[in-house]
Amino acid sequence: MSELTEAGPGTTWWTEADIDEVTEMLASRRSRLWQLVAPADLAAWVFADSAPAPLDPPPVDFDGDWSSGLDESGRQAWALAGWVARTVVPEAADTAGRYWILSQLDDVSSSVLRLTVGVLEILGLYESGEAVWLRVHAAPVGLAMETGAADLEEWGRRGVEVLEDGTKTLADEKLLLRCPDLDTARWLLRQPPVIAGLRLLSCWVAAGPYSFEGRYRPEIVGRAWRASEYMPTDGSQEASDAEVGFDRPYTGATVTADLPAQRSFDADAYRAGVGDHDRLCRSLIAHLAASGVRAGAGLAGVNVDLAWRNADGRQFIAEVKSVYAGNQVEQLRLGLGQVLEYRHRLAARGVPVTAALLVSTCSDPTWRDVCGDSGVILLPGDDERRWTEALGVVAG
């Protein structure tokens, strides 16, 4: 690629000459892909901002609950896989099953999600979130390193490994990037040269032979596509999440049809508890909404029941516990322990929060002091009148 020259506002590591070079490179391939988009348009897209393809229309119809059966790491892994497909695969919605697939494979320790474009796997990650690997075209990354737009030392401090990739396709022109976890992968994917490297590699291999149509599972693509709505990776989405103060909208809890048949397990009480938990969550969401504050679930990858920012920008989290006769002390102890753990985990990630514990009822006034001594706000569900004062929510 060409040496760095000035190419307009905001451009610091690539030029129009680089787009021309990529156009010539892609035009040398013969593919039905050019019936959908011209090589010159794809070359410009390689270096464009990392906006993902629109959610609608999706590649396939998908009406189910994409997060069913997943823990927090699993939800984040699926969301990341879907976001990468929407962001780096050319004309992703129209080419699913024709030029790319997303696979779910069972490993010894955890399921693996793999994004294959053409004949090459460009993304792999464990559903447990323990590792992510990306294949990128070396040219954009190398150019950015030469111009100082990519800092290898910073990558190393964050645990990113930059390795030569030995697969035969473009053997001398691509890199393998290994990330130790999902947070690091999301950080790496905010680097424009990495997106450009992924896009350039995808364009090249998507314009070549494709032999995996028989392995295409539309339900996997549909699930990841829908999941990607809740994964912040680019700067604009991060700003939006910082504004509202949660990872994803609250969707409520469900009770499976078949509950375990154990002597100590009261199925009716369990169903009632889940229902009351959902009622409490929705009551607090509605209470906050009346003051112009949006609440959702999860925060910075920690699976808190509810999270929000108030009108002054103060970040809150809440653990919610249903309480009935006979389990009040147990639920209060459990809830306080959980919200203290979540607060600690978030603080370790640089996210300071004010913690609240919302319970159905609390007949022992001592618990208000117990929670207060730990810096936790106690919100009895049967005394909503005190919530505004306790939370310090600014109306309007």
Shape type: elongated
Q: How large is the share of residues in beta strands?
A: 15-25%
Task: Round the Cα radius of gyration to an integer and report it.
Answer: 24 Å
What number of domains?
Answer: 2
- Listing every helix as H and every strand as E from the N terminus to the C terminus, the arrangement reads HHHHEEEEHHEEHHHHHEEEHEHEH
Mean pLDDT: 83
Helicity level:
25-40%
The strand order across the widest sheet is 1-2-3-4-6-5
Distance between the termini: 53 Å
Largest sheet: 6 strands, antiparallel
Number of strands: 11
Structural class from helices and strands? alpha+beta
Total helices: the number is 14
Task: List segments where confidence is low: pLDDT < 50 over at least 5 consecutive residues.
Answer: 1-11, 233-242, 254-271
Descriptive report:
This protein has 396 residues and is of the alpha+beta class. The chain has two domains: 16-237, no CATH class; 245-391, Trna Endonuclease, Chain: A, domain 1. Helices cover 39% and strands 15% of the residues. The chain has 14 helices and eleven strands. The protein has helices spanning 16-27, 39-46, 72-88, 92-95, 138-147, 152-157, 182-188, 192-206, 218-227, 235-244, 267-289, 328-348, 366-373, 387-391, and strands spanning 100-106, 111-117, 120-126, 132-137, 161-164, 174-179, 295-296, 306-309, 315-321, 354-359, 376-380. Helix 12 links the parallel strand 9 (315-321) and strand 10 (354-359).
